[in-house]
Specification:
The protein is of the alpha/beta class and 316 residues long. It contains twelve helices and 14 strands. The protein folds into two domains: 175 residues, P-loop containing nucleotide triphosphate hydrolases (Rossmann fold), CATH 3.40.50.300; 62 residues, Alpha-Beta Plaits (2-Layer Sandwich). The radius of gyration is 24 Å and the shape is elongated. Bound molecules: adenosine-5'-diphosphate.
């Protein structure tokens, strides 16, 4: 399979702050690649460099087969970019925004209208297309923004945190649209996200970026294999029960504040049954039991030693 994006030794600093400290990446054509990392990791900087908006300090970069340094025009012609902040003009209707974009691509009047109407259909914005974009919800703005990116038929699309700030339903809609771009249109998607679930849902390959360095790379499955097995969480209301349970289950990791015991367990029916039997034998009053199989949050924690934004919210 040929590469849509190939990066060797990408470096970028602002003053003495190293934002990208020597990154290698390879994205196969027709796949979804996710650069995953917390705020400030360097994701937007990477997208800005790969999409020719800013220059790298060093590195060999090929995008759509073209050398980024020598032939930025050819790269620009092959790509589309959707940033975190919408390029949509609120004082135009959705349809007018698309037609304006088509004009920028010199599509010609009739073709511009046809393309705008096709995209409005594809993005479920036919009705909304007649309304001013400033009246759109967050999800609609993201959709029209993505539609605008597609006007020029890019082969490679950069999506910088495409669902940050969206409600769960709009996020799922967006995921569906992104998947369709790849399955129906055969485009390559380079996506940045802070959401492990998003990378897990969409990406063929994931690279984890932390402080400007790639700390892990692979498929979601490969990354999940980096983490030791899952666990069972047992929550208690009584401190006495909690203390007793700690003696009965010596491998458990206690959290004395929340009265939670984390028991290593692979989540199989067999091992779960064995655990419940020990709880019963000791007549322990467990308030709540949850099974936790390893997910990308655990991967992130394993490779960076930090919880994700997502986990911080959950544990608050
Ligand atoms: P992310 O997209 O992962 O949140 P960014 O690429 O936006 O991360 O930023 C990475 C780091 O680079 C941050 O610490 C940010 O403050 C710094 N940075 C980004 N752009 C500039 C700039 N123009 N000047 C100075 N520092 C910058």
């Amino acid at each position: 399979m040929s590469s849509a994006i190939d990066v060797r030794g990408l470096h970028k600093s602002y003053g003495d702050k190293v934002v990208l400290g020597g990154i290698d990446l390879n994205v196969a054509e027709g796949t979804i690649f996710s650069l995953l990392g917390p705020n400030g990791a360097g994701k937007t900087t990477a997208v800005q460099i790969l999409s020719t908006l800013i220059a790298a300090d060093a590195g060999e970069i090929r995008v759509a087969g073209h050398d980024l340094h020598q032939d930025p025009e050819a790269v620009r012609a092959a790509i589309g970019v959707t940033g975190q902040f919408s390029a949509v003009d609120g004082l135009l209707t959705g349809r007018e925004n698309l037609i304006m974009m088509a004009d920028l691509h010199h599509l010609g009047r009739r073709e511009a209208r046809r393309r705008a109407d096709d995209l409005l259909k594809q993005f479920d914005l036919v009705e909304a297309g007649q309304k001013l974009a400033m009246t759109y919800s967050g999800g609609m703005k993201r959709r029209i923004d993505l539609a605008m990116t597609l006007v020029g038929n890019p082969r490679i699309i950069f999506l910088d945190e495409p669902t940050t700030g969206l409600d769960p339903r709009s996020r799922h809609n967006m995921w569906q649209l992104i998947r369709q771009l790849v399955t129906d249109g055969g485009v390559t998607v380079f996506l940045t996200t802070q959401y492990l679930e998003e990378a897990d849902q969409l990406a063929d390959r994931i690279a984890v970026l932390d402080h400007g360095r790639l700390v892990a790379e692979g498929t979601a499955e490969e990354l999940k294999r980096l983490v030791p097995g899952g666990h069972i969480r047992l929550r208690f209301t009584s401190p006495d029960e909690f203390a007793l349970a700690g003696q009965v289950l010596p491998t458990a990791v206690p959290n004395n504040e929340s009265l939670v015991l984390q028991v290593p367990n692979d989540g199989s029916v067999h091992s779960l049954r064995a655990l419940l039997a020990r709880i019963d034998d000791a007549s322990l009053e467990v308030d709540e039991l949850t099974v936790h199989t390893p997910d990308l949050d655990d991967v992130f924690f394993a490779v960076t030693g930090q919880p994700t934004a997502h986990q911080e919210v959950i544990t608050k």
